[in-house]
Amino acid sequence: KFIPNYSKIALPLTNLTKDKVSFVWGEEEQKAFELLKNYLITEPCLHLPDFSRPFSILTDASKYSLGCVLVQEDESTGFHHPIAFASRKLGPSEISYATLEKECLTLVFAITHFKNYLYGAHFNVFSDQQCLSRVKTLKDPTSRIARWFLTLQQYDYTIIYKPGRLNFMADYLSRATYPADKQSDNTNSEEVHNVNAQFNVFNFFSIHELIEKQNKDPYCQNIKSKLNSNFVFSPKSPQFFIKDNLLLCKNNNMSGKHKLNTKLVVPQSLVPQILHLCHDIDAVAHPGLSRTMRRIQKNYFWRGQFRQVKNYIAFCHECIQRRGYVKHIKAPIQRIPTADFPFQKCAFDAVGPLVTSNHGNKWIIVISDYFTRYAEAYPVKNIQSSTVAHVLMDFISRHGLMQVLYSDRG
């Protein structure tokens, strides 16, 4: 689904996903949410490509950027349904190009970007510059334009003039703006609202019940009494503080992105419920020790946390059932049928572990198309299911959903 100027509309919502910004839902966030919902049920909606029908490209260039749209015409209505969008900013030297050179650059960018859909078949290119339709007949083109069209000689296309008022999709992409991120303060009152919102999500217990259980817990009582008497804690101990009678803390001796997160000090009477929420419910599906610890340490703190989490997972009935010995049986070698069109059948595999790169990557995920032999390689830090899913979503969002995906990693 394409949403015009999405980054600007969703800015209040994307700001809430930052690590050091508290989750506070206000009028601005609600307005952005409602506007995005309205866009999701209105045109334009992206269509899946139909390789039995010809493709077309809409192109346009502005002063600072260029844009293009891959479309297919509806035979009954004549409407060009968008298949994919692409745009980019012009470089410092490209901004000084003449208008004709910018339009030619857009043409080269569009065709090379969508080459997997266009190669080997005739397609039309629609532009709002009449001079672009006659550029092939120039008697003395500049070296830059001649070099570009030499690159495009392997493609079969026709350039058609389309007035700017009708070429609105590509024109909008070439003139899109990129607003700067907003900064948000992280106040103590927002921290308490953030902790309260976490429990409202689970419908577990109210903030007043939590304060009452903290007051009955010996460890929480001891910490509160020390805070009231201005006791000086060890530099390695968590930074405890009380806000609206609720005991919270920040960990100094932790490493990682959750180090400065505001955490709830959990009384021992509520530890079993927290362990159940972070390990047993269907939404998390019984993760291992490290993933469960990361999930708990993001929002909660109590004394003896690691030992209790380790024992809880060690005696989890569902986890014990899945730890049984699984005999690996090699599948017989089979002949794979050939593909009929691009991205009908793709192969997926992971290579590694290799020597760790400067960016921390030590695996390479490779996805290749059986029809065109086109391949893409993704350097990743691990091959966990979330990482693999992110790679597949990136590949499918740009090339469409394949009918068959071959892999030896079930």
From TrEMBL:
Q: Which residues form the Integrase catalytic domain?
A: 338-410
In its keyword annotation, does this UniProt entry include Transport? no
Keywords attached to this Swiss-Prot or TrEMBL record, sorted alphabetically, are: Endonuclease, Hydrolase, Multifunctional enzyme, Nuclease, Nucleotidyltransferase, RNA-directed DNA polymerase, Transferase
Pfam families listed in its UniProt record: Integrase_H2C2 (PF17921), RT_RNaseH_2 (PF17919)
Q: What is its EC number?
A: 2.7.7.49
| Any single biological process term in GO | DNA integration
Show the Gene3D superfamilies listed in the entry.
1.10.340.70, 3.30.70.270, Ribonuclease H-like superfamily/Ribonuclease H
Q: Which GO terms describe its cellular component?
A: DNA polymerase complex
**What is this enzyme's class at the first EC digit?**
transferase
Q: Which GO terms describe its molecular function?
A: endonuclease activity; nucleic acid binding; RNA-directed DNA polymerase activity
The keyword Phosphoprotein appears for this protein: no
Q: What is this protein called?
A: RNA-directed DNA polymerase
